Amino acid sequence: MRIALVQQHVVGKHETDVERGLEAVRKAAAQGAQVICFAELAFAPFYPQQPAVPAVIDLAEPIPGPTTDAFSALAAELGVVIVLNLFERGNDGRTYDTSPVIDADGSWLGSTRMIHITEYEGFHEQGYYAPGDRGAPVYDTRHGRIGVAICYDRHYPEYMRALALASAEVVIVPQAGAVGEWPEGLYEAEMRVAAFQNGYFTALCNRVGAEERLSFAGESFVCGPDGRVLARAGQGTDEILVCDMDLGQVPTSHARTLFLRDRRPDLYGDWLGHN
User: Fold this and answer.
1) Non-local CB neighbours of 264 within 8 Å, separated by 6+ positions
2) Rounded Cα–Cα distance for residues 127 and 274 (Å)
3) Is the pTM of this model over 0.90?
4) Going by C-beta distance under 8 Å and a sequence separation of 6 or more, which residues neighbour residue 182?
5) 196 near 225, Cβ under 8 Å?
6) Beta strands, E only, the chain
7) Would you say 97 and 40 are in contact if contact means Cβ atoms under 8 Å apart?
8) Measured distance CA(45)–CA(213) in Å, rounded
């Protein structure tokens, strides 16, 4: 699988940002990318920089809707899988941080909604996002089995393990990580460990650019099932990071041949309880 991570700043006008995203898909496909991914809220300002306003639902969009329709048509034209991240207005009247997954024939396979919702300075997410209600799905795409861990969900080993147990080969992480938000190298180390412990590739696509209150770092990267970083984008740069991944490494990884085989789920329930 050749994957492309689109690390691209937001200009703040939805139609323009979507058009720039479509152009990035074309550029990535021209480089041979089969799976193309975007960062968190790729076509909108990062709204949670400020506490939520009462009419927050007016900022959100339906899925499927005009944005997913545009990317679905292009996916079918180019034969590529596309993983987006949008601020979703659900049919239930709630709003979600959501990643639609579009297959290479343009069909919408489904959407992952972020489950764990944080709240702290600059990330006032609990006023914007309801907790996801769709579990940890893995999508069987034309180019491989893909799971999605949206930003904050990556911190939860239970979630990352669930994707492995559902036979994910690649876990894509749309993120909005700010400059200096975490100690240097920590979120990269976290993704390397997740890849190694679970025997899949991790591909973190980070937001980039200076916005109202935060500057987003970029530095998107891809890790192999052995925990090594295979490719890395620059800090603060607009670029398309392209990386080749040998999915044959997944079934032969330490996690798939040893760690998952030797699990003791009969004990874990007693250890963890219901808290």
Assistant:
1) none
2) 26
3) yes
4) none
5) yes
6) 2-7, 35-38, 81-83, 86-89, 95-102, 108-113, 138-141, 144-148, 170-175, 201-206, 208-210, 215-217, 221-223, 229-232, 239-244
7) yes
8) 11
Domains and CATH numbers, the chain: 2-272 (3.60.110.10)
- Cα 159 to Cα 153: distance, rounded to the nearest angstrom: 7
- Name the residue among 131, 86, 87, 134 with its Cα closest to residue 112: 134
Q: How confident is the model at residue 274 (pLDDT cuts 50, 70, 90)?
A: low
Query: In whole angstroms, what is the distance from residue 248 CA to residue 244 CA?
Result: 12
* H helix runs in 79-150, sequence order: none
The residue type found at 152 is: Y
Torsion sign over Cα 251, 252, 255, 257: positive
Q: What is residue 275's predicted lDDT score, i.e. its pLDDT?
A: 62
Half-sphere CA count of 166, side-chain side, radius 13 A: 20
